[in-house]
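Record pair follows.
FIRST:
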Amino acid sequence: MLDDVLAALRAIGREPEVLATERVDVDAPVTVDDRALDPAVNDVLETTDGPVTVVMADLGLATPDALDRLFEPEADVVLAPGRGGGTNAFVARHPDFRVDYHDASIRDHRRIARNLTDDVIEVDSFRLATDVDDPADLAEVMLHGEGEATDWLEARGFELSLDDGRVGVSR
């Protein structure tokens, strides 16, 4: 999925960098920071001049078109909420924006952003809202994915299954 996210970002002319808790083998610069998500991302926000964009690596449905919609608004803060109440991506142009990833983080990020500026926009995107947090989420990747993650799942024997009218995955 990370490779798919990186490819989608490159397709729209972005030069992604990866922030990870350990070394990962990807075709992008990687910064290893073993701290929790909040301090690691907030350090980037505090030390970077200009806009900062965070796109989570588990967005198996991210496409160039969906990511274009994230970058399109010129707002101080652009948020892409996740289906489960998280924040799956954002663009922060306001220098004082900081993150608070816990519980329903989109609610916290809205509050943080609106306390700084009235210029806050949310991007309503199925593709950016769909992250993979548990095995059931893999069904969305297999149904709607267009990248390496879908091919990887199929090559390892995953397939869609129906259980009481719900689509899932089995192996």
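SECOND:
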Amino acid sequence: MVDLEKRKVIWNHNGRGKYVLDKFYRRLGRKNCDHIQAVASDGARGFLSSTQAFAKNALIVLDHFHVKKYLLDALDKVRKEELRRARKENNDELSQVLHCNQRFILMQSKKSKKKHDILARLAILNERLDQAMLLKEQFMDIYQAEDQKTAQTNLKEWIIAALKSNIPSFVELGNKFFRKRHFVLNYFVCKITTAISEGINNKIKRLSRTAYGFRDVHYFLLKIHQRCGLLNPRCST
């Protein structure tokens, strides 16, 4: 658990899931939980239900970096399906475009000339993957909306388009975003993300590699607080 204002680890535990987050909220106490204003989460069902149960006044924001990961995973699933079909049909030109060495160009957000050329070829060679690419790009444009009302309209249109696409991975994603639409739109009320947590995770991984691992889990948790939390003597408490 990370305090977004202090940018420090305030609690950690050996494990994950709803039961672990429940422990944090119980230790925090009802009064402190009532003062939590907003929580950024990756959208896991257990995390959402735990926060809703304990931090009832908190605004839950579905982290848009994880939203992007959902989109990329769905797109990559379509790419793999079409690549297998192209190889089965001996379609060498399409196989070359969909090969794994082109994967990062397809997945990147940056609109480079090379990506534009690949997308132009896809529009001719494979309509299904081209449609999946358009759905991915259109969803990310939702975050460019000026206000929540506009974002809500754009999200509704995207969900309808995803459900009508008949692409299984995007139909599933459309249903998921429909169930979690309020958490997606909460970003326009409180623009917080889990970016700080992801950065701290990288510090923790580096700490573990530097020590060549830790045999004592409790000692490792303490070292995390010392390096990334309020136990750091260089930080004011």
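COMMENT: The chain has a mean pLDDT of 86.
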